[in-house]
Every structure is written in C-alpha cells, then in structure tokens.
Amino acid sequence: MSLVETSIQTSETPLGRDDLARMVARDIKPGSFVNLGIGQPTLVSNYLVPEQNITLHTENGMLGMGPVATGDQIDGDLINAGKIPVIELPGASYFHHADSFAIMRGGHLDICVLGAFQVSATGDLANWHTGAPDAIPAVGGAMDLATGAKDVFVMMTLLTREGASKIVEACTYPLTGVGCVTRVYTDKAVFLTGPDGVRVRETFGCSLEELQALVPVPLTAAPAVEH
Amino acid sequence: MLNFVDTVGAAVAAVKDGSTVMIGGFGNAGQPFELIDALLDSGATDLTVVNNNAGQGDQGLALLIKEGRVRKMICSFPRQSDSWHFDAKYKAGEIELELVPQGNLAERIRAAGAGIGGFFTPTGYGTMLAEGKETRIIDGRGQVFETPIHADVALIKALKADGVGNLVYRKTARNFGPIMAAAARHTIVQVSEIVPTGSLDPENIVTPGIYVNSIVKVASAAGTAEQVA
Predict the structure, then answer these.
(1) Fold adopted by A9-226
(2) Using one digit for the tens of pLDDT, what is the confidence trace for A136-173?
(3) A-contacting residues of B 65-104, CB under 8 Å?
(4) Measured by CB atoms within 10 angstroms of the end CB, which terminus of chain B is less buried, N or C?
(5) Share of chain B above pLDDT 70, in %
(6) Do B225 and A61 touch (CB under 8 A)?
C-alpha cells in the first residue's frame, strides 16, 4: 500500500477536543441510537442538534438521556454511566441492567464512542487497563460496548505525552475487544480502521506524509466518496 | 414466604458468615444504604459481595469493606476516585477481586434467576478476562462461556412495594434490583413506601412479588441530592 497523492488536509491546525466532539456529532447519522463513553466522548452530546433526532443510551438503564442536570433538576436516582446527575427527555425509558446490556450486546446500538489507550491497525481496542502490576483493574461496560455496537468510534489524541502513536501495529496494553473499532477521531486526523488496514479520511494541520511519519502502520487516503 | 419486617436489623438477619450477598445499586443510585448499615451492625463476616462497584466514599459498601467483612468482591468497576477503602484492602492483599465485564455481570445474575446453566457471549473474547474460559466460534464470532452467579441473599432498594411484594423502582435506581431479586435465594427489599395490594397497576409491576422474601420500609426519601456521588 502506498500514500495516494491527494490533499486530504481539511484544517491548518490540529483539532481541539471540542472541535473533535463537534465533528463526531456531525458524523452521527440522524435517528441513531448512541452510547457515549465516559470522558472525552461525553463532549459529543454538547454538539448534537435536535434535528438529528439522536437517542442516547446510558448503560445504567435508560434510553432518552438528556443533558447534565443543574440546580433543582438534580436527582440522585437519575444519573449517567459516569454517575453524574442528568435529566430525562420526552420519550425516555428505564429498564434493568440485563436489559440495558442486551441493548448493547444484542447489536441494537448504532454507534458507541469510546476513549482509548491504543487502537491497532485492524481495529483492536485497548482502553480499560494499563496492565501495570499495581493498577487496580476496572472494566465496566467497555467490553460490552466494544463488541456490541454496530460502529465503534474512538476519540483520542494521536500521540501519548511521550510522543508515541496510539495507533499501533498491535496493541501492547490489554485488549478490550478484537477488530471492533471502525473509526478513530484524533487531533491530527480521522482514521477508518478495518480488515483492510488504516485509511485516512482527513488530516488536521499536517499532510498525509507528515502523518505517516508519526504512525507506525501503513496509511492510505480513503476514497473521497467515504469522506 | 413474604415477610414485612419492622427494622432493617431484623431484615438482614438472613445474612450469615460466609454468605454470598448481592447488593443493588450503580454508584449510589439504588444502593440500599440502610440495609447495608444494618449488615454492618449485624457482624456478619467473610462475605462474598456482588455489586457493580466496590464502594464509594465512607458509606455503605465502602464501610463494609473497610471493616474487613468482605472476603471477595465480584464487580465490574472497583476503581473510582473515592474507592479508597477497596483500594487499600486490595493493595494489602486482604480482599479477593473477581472482575467481570458489566454486561456479563448483569447477564450472569439474570441467568441465575432464570435457571440457565451458562451462556456464550462475544464480550471479552480475546481479552485477559476470558483467559482459561471455554470458547467457541458461533455465527463466525468468537464467544466465551460464562456461568451464572447465584447468591444466598440480595439486598435491594425499590420505591414502592404492595402487600404481596410486587415492586416498582425509580428512574436509574432500578439498575440491578430486578435481576438480583430473582437470582438470590432470599431477597430483602427496602422501600420508601408500602402501598395497599391492588393499588399498583399490574401492567407496571417491575418485580413480581414471587421473587421477594422480606420488605422493610425506611424513612429515607428516594432521589435526594445528598445521595448523588
């Protein structure tokens, strides 16, 4: 595979967290059922617009989750997966935990958006455990989301603080799921992952060649039709 | 046999040393704090506890762990910013942890209540949490065999019970309550209100009374801001 000589750079600078969240929100198809992971993915909800008619699922037993609760809205019985108080939207429903995870595991969610430590060239995801011997492991619903949602989007910075690419040939951190990630949104580029390797949809503040110098797996430009 | 008991202390008398105890709640929502406090007072020890988390702050399950009464935790997400009591016991090697993906935790509890001997699921396939477990390729996907989680006792919180033990819950405080009620041999429920039989719409009953053994009314209101994590 080789780089295709075409410019897919769509911004002069790397994207900030909010710009990236706005882009993910824009890419979610109208009418989708979506689960947003804890942390950076939660920002996506700030940029969903009512016209998209997106229904948010939270693992602790609710569809139709609304924004974070404030003031008198705060109710200890109504929280999201991050245990933050939220509100319910018209049309919301509540269900027990096995039903909530059947929604994930049964393939009923269109998209989940998750953070990650690493994503491999074939879409393996590592996002729950550093593998450090003294770390207390905690997995929550990450493995269920990764294997159950029709599309798994990852949001992360491309590089670690030490400058290493988080897109890797093979994950060195413990896996969350095998071959599950379909798209990776980073500050420097949007990557499409799958059995055919890593394709780049667009870059931010760098050329495809400059991006390739940072990422240790072969990159190709995604055909424009998929942009 | 359904009993209405007057005190949380009498309600938790069914928990013995060495019992496996399911405790409802996700974070603080649906956590039966009064029943857990009574369990703390009861002195029962060497417990295996099934809960999504491993206690937060200095209340409820966190105190049970702090006091060394929990031999083993079966949970999906023990590590939180305020799970210091679990963290300390774990690092000291004084508590055993069985870490279970949350959907497997829920489905294994459901399976116990439904009399299912086990199931295959793609969740965890190819990860360290499936190591040593039987796997199969089903419909082209790798799947892992998971077994039910039974319990001697479940402690759960509901909003209302009627005279035959039918339960309704409140918002996301429902979480593990219905499946734990079915999975345990003896289910103890704390409710905010006991209403006359016939006053709950049968179409809206979430947990039928057949799964419930003991009900105790507690004063605490549902959904108070103080219980927000």
Answers:
(1) Glutaconate Coenzyme A-transferase (3.40.1080)
(2) 999 999 999 999 999 999 999 999 999 999 999 999 99
(3) 76-80, 86-87, 90-91, 97, 99-104
(4) N
(5) 96
(6) no
Which residue is associated with the tokens 């059995």? A195
Q: Which of A8-12, A86-90, A151-155, B106-110 has the lowest mean pLDDT?
A: A8-12
Residue A159 DSSP label = B
What is the set of domains in chain B, with CATH numbers? 3-117+149-217 (3.40.1080.10)
**Residues B23-60: tens digit of each pLDDT:** 999 989 999 999 999 999 999 999 999 999 999 999 99
Largest pairwise CA distance in chain B:
55
Q: Cα(A209)–Cα(B169) distance, rounded to whole angstroms? A: 57
Task: Please report, for chain A, the start and end positions of each structural domain, with discontinuous segments joined by +.
Answer: 9-226
User: A48-63: buried (b, 16+ CB within 10 Å) or exposed (e) per residue?
Assistant: beeebebbbbbbbbbb
Among A71, A68, A70, A170, smallest CA distance to A119 is for A170
Residues in A touching B106 (Cβ below 8 Å) = 96-98, 100-101
DSSP codes joined into one string, A62-118: EEEEEEE--GGG--TT-B-TTS-BEEEEEEEEE--HHHHHHHHHTT--SEEEE--SE
